[in-house]
Amino acid sequence: MESEKDAEPNATLAGFDVIDGIKSELERSCPATVSCADVLALAARDAVAMLGGPSWGVLLGRKDSLTASIDMAKEDLPNPKDSLAELIRMFEKNGLDERDLTALSGAHTVGVAHDCKNYDDRIYSRVGQGGDSIDPSFAAQRRQECEQKHGNATAPFDERTPAKFDNAYYIDLLARRGLLTSDQELYTQGCETGDLVKTYAMNGNVFFADFTRAMVKMGNIRPKHWWTPAEVRYSRLETIYWCT
Predict the structure, then answer these.
(1) What is the count of structural domains for the chain?
(2) Which residues does the annotation say bind heme b (predicted)?
């Protein structure tokens, strides 16, 4: 089955083997109880904490889908070249506001982009030659890497501390050194997102607080045909019962 994991926006995602390994261990201990969706939500929380970031409570009770849609993944995931208006529209469609958008984008304080096509619009366009939205030296550095690797270069989203969960991503945006268009678009003067970028760059604790709140909010988005609150509560109790 072609699933959301096979969608182009997810093509370079790694770590599914880790989720599969955790799921296998759980199946041996308490079969048919904990979903892969819950494992993924918990693993995301723990990975952030292990890299120096905050932690938060994860509501359990998600069900795994038998028809994870590749088409919905294509339509509902942000594009690295999206404008701020498009990002706001996409997040609003899922009940997330501009504060959620800005805070959740901070997840790019960790990780890399695997293909130059994801940011070639920034480094090769007229803007990439030294416009207001990009540092010319940053653009030149990325162009050199892409040309040396024939378009297959990897580049960190946060060039300061790419393996640490902190607020350096926002400091990069203030310096016009955001890697993706969808990153740098957040720092738009006169917009709420731009003000939040400055706040998070100056105060990592505020970023952590907003990130955890937004992660809980996003984790509670219900897809179609989701369980009722009563079923979620029952599932949580059932999980506690069978796994203890």
Answers:
(1) 2
(2) 108
Name the residue type at position 43: A
Model confidence at 243, pLDDT cuts 50, 70, 90, reads: very low
> Which residues form the domain of 36?
4-114+154-243
Of the three residues 153, 168, 202, the one that is the final residue of a domain is 153
pTM of the model: 0.87
**212 annotated ligand-binding residue:** no
Cα 84 to the center of its chain, rounded Å: 16
**Residue 33 in marked binding region:** no
Q: Is residue 161 a known part of a binding site?
A: yes
Is 4 annotated among the ligand-binding residues?
Answer: yes
Does 102 appear as a known binding residue? no
**Measured in Å, how far apart are the chain's first and last C-alpha atoms?**
34
The tokens for 67 are 């028809």
Does 125 lie in the same domain as 22? no
Specify the range with the lowest mean pLDDT, choosing from 71-80, 131-140, 164-173: 71-80
pLDDT in tens, 199-212: 999 999 999 999 99
